[in-house]
């Protein structure tokens, strides 16, 4: 049976504070590896079957990877990419605000405690995301231009402007407003 350390060893295979390009780019080999090793965990995790993992910092981090990152890799262009987001935010809220488990992690690992808020279409969650990511400002790798802190601010700006992420509209079957269409046509992104 898969354990939290199996997920952490896979995701942070180059070290607990080493940024991997495969995390945020389309990489079919990386996605296939997630599917082969951990794809069967997505539905049980979304349904709460792995919530006991959240009792420890490593368990929470592993669960957040399953709920927030793995669906984005395995379900690109499909609504299931976002199906676990509410549960991910709930786990992240407990881990970061109630238990402060994020503080037991390296700066790179901490960012994965905060991403569920950055992925939210709620301005309150976006404000929380920015505040949490700003807490990483003292770590040079986190504060570099086009780094995770800048991306948190960019995500927040999109939600402030549109109240949602326009690039999700097609996937989620939502009609785009003229302003969203213009933004997307101009290369809207982060």
Automatic annotation (TrEMBL):
Q: Which InterPro entries does the annotation name?
A: DUF924
Q: Which Pfam families match?
A: DUF924
Q: Kindly provide the name given to this protein in its UniProt entry.
A: DUF924 family protein
Source species of the chain: Falsiroseomonas tokyonensis
The record lists the lineage as: Bacteria, Pseudomonadati, Pseudomonadota, Alphaproteobacteria, Acetobacterales
């Amino acid at each position: 049976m898969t354990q939290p350390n199996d997920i952490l060893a896979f995701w942070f295979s180059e070290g607990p504070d080493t940024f991997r390009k495969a995390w945020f780019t389309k990489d079919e080999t990386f996605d296939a590896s997630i599917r082969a090793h951990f794809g069967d965990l997505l539905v049980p995790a979304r349904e709460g079957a792995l919530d006991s993992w959240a009792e420890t910092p490593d368990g929470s981090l592993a669960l957040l990877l399953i709920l927030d990152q793995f669906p984005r890799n395995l379900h690109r262009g499909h609504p299931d990419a976002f199906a676990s987001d509410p549960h991910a935010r709930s786990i992240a809220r407990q881990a970061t605000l109630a238990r402060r488990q994020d503080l037991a992690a390296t700066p790179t690992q901490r960012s994965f405690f905060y991403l569920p808020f950055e992925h939210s279409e709620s301005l309150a969650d976006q404000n929380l995301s920015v505040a949490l990511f700003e807490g990483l400002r003292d770590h040079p790798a986190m504060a570099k231009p086009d780094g995770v802190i800048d991306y948190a601010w960019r995500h927040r700006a999109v939600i402030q402007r549109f109240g949602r992420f326009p690039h999700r509209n097609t996937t989620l079957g939502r009609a785009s407003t003229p302003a969203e269409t213009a933004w997307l046509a101009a290369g809207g992104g982060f």
